[in-house]
Amino acid sequence: MASPFLNPHPRQLYVVHCFDGPSATERLSSVADPAPNSPNHRRMCGVHRVECYEEHVAYQLSTSKPKHDCFIQKVAAAPKLAKDGLTIVGSSFLLRGTQEECSRFIQNDPYYKKSVWASVSIQRYLDSSSTGRAFPPTKLLHPVPVKRTYGIQPIQGDQINGALQLHAGTA
Question: Would you say which domain of life the source belongs to (predicted)?
Answer without folding.
Answer: Eukaryota
